[in-house]
Amino acid sequence: MSPGQIAALIAAGAFVLLVLLLAIPLIKLGRTLDEATIAIRKAHENSTPLFTEANTTLTHVNTQLERVDGITANARAVTGNVSALTSLFTATLGGPLVKAAALSYGVSKAVRARRARKSGADTGAGRTRRGRGGRK
Q1: Which terminus of the chain, N or C, has less C-beta within 10 A?
Q2: What are the distances in angstroms from CA 110 to CA 43, 102, 106?
Q3: Where are the residues of the annotated region Disordered (predicted)?
Q4: Cα dihedral 88/94/97/99 (nearest 10)
Q5: pLDDT, tens only, 62-77
Q6: Nearby residues of 136 by Cβ (< 8 Å), 6 or more positions away
Q7: Closest alpha carbon to 4 in 12, 132, 75, 59
């Protein structure tokens, strides 16, 4: 055997070894791709019931939202009625109540002023006799 043939034989052995070393990751990659394909197929098969249930859930949510819209409309109507009633009450009874409050305030102030004048007249004479504000 010539040295060139020996070198070719060594190169062929190295190439076989390289192919064997690369075959192992390629086989593992193939298994991984098979598992991924199975997982995608299962996910696709299970997505139909999921979408059906989601559609049912959305239908129920839309029904509830329609009810909430009705409740909101009723609350808006009640708010408008309360506002109108408040305005009517203020227009009807607000003015007379303010006048009555002003009258009672004026009367109580006049009574206090009269009492102060009356008690001031009684103590005013005592102040002049005792000197400094009626102290003993």
Answers
A1: C
A2: 90, 12, 6
A3: 116-136
A4: -140
A5: 999 999 999 999 999 9
A6: 130
A7: 12
